[in-house]
Amino acid sequence: MPEIITINQDSDTPARVERFPVGRLTYLYDRSADSRRGGAPGQDFIAFSGGADWLTFTLCDGVSQSFYGDLAARFLGERLTGWLADLAWETLPDDLGTLGSRLGEQLNQTLRLWTKDATDLVAEKPISDLLPGMVRDALEHKREVGSESMFVAGRIDMSRWVLVVCWMGDMRLWLWDADNQPFELPDAVWETRERWSSKHGPKNGLARVAVVPLERVARITAHSDGVGSRAPELQWLTPERLDQLAEDLRSQPASDDISILDVWLTPEPLNEALPAPTFAQPDPDEPILHWTAVEGAEWYRVQVRQKGIWVRTIDTHSPNLILPGDLRGEMHFQVQAMSAERAPGELSSAISLKLPVALPPKPPPAVSIPSAPTVRAPASSTPSTVPEVSGAKPVSVFQPVSASALHGGTLNLLAVLLALLLSIGWIYLNVGTH
Questions:
Q1: Whole-model pTM?
Q2: What is the DSSP letter of 291?
Q3: If pLDDT is split at 50, 70 and 90, which confidence band does 88 have?
Q4: Which residues, including other chains, have CB under 8 Å from residue 345's CB and lie 6 or more apart?
Q5: How far apart (Å, rounded) are the C-alpha atoms in residues 101 and 137?
Q6: Residues 6+ apart with CB under 8 A from 33
Q7: Residues in a beta bridge with 322
Q8: Contact 99, 93 (CB under 8 A)
Q9: Which domains can be identified in the chain, with CATH numbers?
Q10: What is the mean pLDDT of residues 127-134?
């Protein structure tokens, strides 16, 4: 698999520019207001990869009605970007119509094959013991349904001078000519019901594929549905305008995740790459990486590999990184300094770090509730009566309750109500409708 650049889902990335041989790439990732407040990852995902004469990209929008839609978004985004990068052009026809049909058949077959690995990923996803029981039950039910995501992906290929686009769902892709005027992607249909499922593969339809000659294409813009009715503003795109758009949308009551990726097909000479940072010796007991700061760096990109196989990239603005908790076993890291005005920085020497393997979460201890004793009335042929006891006072069913007992019962009731409200809020944030 080629090196794939992935944008962090658990933090926000303001508008950023990167330069590739085929052109200038601009992107933005902004989580919804609810995800920000809850410290939750976004459901969208951005990935891309590039070579001397090609660039592939994928934007995914996880379906929140499914089991952790961000999981499907990441899995599918990485796989699609790699699949498009590895296309065997020498085996494909030259005719664009035939090429589109052939790629559609291959893609839908591949999307079905990926369900095995994705299903294993869903099965292994732990659910926190700290969540209320109602939330855990809802998530376990959604685990049976699987994780789902919409997507739009593409490959810009200068050797064949074509753009290949594939998609499912209501994400959008815009084409712009040299005068920055939009024109339609041929036969494009964007259906909200269509998506990829970790359990079924293509769902409610098949993945769609279009092949477009690059003669008329000057820019390509893809975005998630979080942009909404503000999409026409992407015609005049700058990093500053993107940041302002994200800020405006974030303040709306129906704030959603926003992912935008734009490619301007104007190859530009690249300035000299920044030098490689130098790693500090890591503490084996702390999952933190440190390296020397590089003058001129706007951000740093850490590449992660395991047993020589690419795992992911992680971006950070600081010369240090707290490693994500899902990285396990012996990992190998390299870091490079990045700048919008320069070629990607030189890679540092690799360092290795053994990260602990997480134990499966323990189930909560079972609470046994003793059953009430069975009371049998004495056998009698005549109706039973309550015997009178000499000197006994009548006993009231409504016994007086002490102030301390009443106060404790009230606190218990309030605690139950608070837990119920928190459960409903959590479901709204994480298991709500898409």
A1: 0.80
A2: B
A3: confident
A4: 273, 274, 275, 276, 294, 297, 301, 336, 337, 338, 339
A5: 43
A6: 250, 251, 255
A7: 288
A8: yes
A9: 5-264 (3.60.40.10), 288-355 (2.60.40.10)
A10: 90
